[in-house]
Design a protein that fits this description.
With 127 residues, this protein is mostly helical. It has 2 domains: 10-81; 84-127. Helix content is 78%, strand content 0%. The chain has helices at residues 12-34, 40-59, 62-80, 86-122. Helix 1 packs antiparallel against helix 2 and helix 2 (40-59) crosses helix 3. The longest helix has 37 residues, at 86-122. It is elongated and about 75 Å long.
């Protein structure tokens, strides 16, 4: 017997909530631009209000709850990361810059050698 979780199809109510959330966010942005002749505070309130309604609607859907759980797990995993010290970061940065410089010189030299071989030796074009 398999213990694999079963993926269920979301209810149509959740899809409606997501669509309404998108519509509320778009309405907030449109309201911001339609109210261009009003005070900035009114325009900002329309934008923020639309976004708050959109977040509230999205949060009540299954996809919104899944996103919130994903975000929480991401923050928890980020706290587990061992960040490099300043010295280690500077050393790694110096290594990257050194490698880039060496590659730039190598590619420049290869270009000049191919230019010499092609134009001077093969084609005979002297500059």
């Amino acid at each position: 017997m398999s213990n694999q979780p079963v993926q269920t199809v979301g209810a149509s109510g959740d899809k409606v909530k997501v669509v309404l959330a998108i519509a509320a966010a778009i309405a907030g942005v449109v309201g911001f631009y339609v109210l261009s002749d009003k005070a900035t505070a009114v325009r900002a309130a329309a934008l923020v209000g639309g976004l708050i309604v959109a977040v509230a609607l999205a949060w009540t859907s299954a996809a919104g709850r899944d996103f919130v759980n994903f975000a929480r797990e991401s923050v928890r995993e980020t706290k587990k990361v061992v960040w490099p010290t300043r010295k280690e970061a500077m050393q790694m940065t110096a290594i990257v810059f050194g490698f880039v410089l060496i590659m730039a010189i190598f590619l420049w030299g290869t270009d000049k050698i191919l230019e010499f071989v092609l134009y001077d030796l093969i084609l005979g074009w002297k500059r």
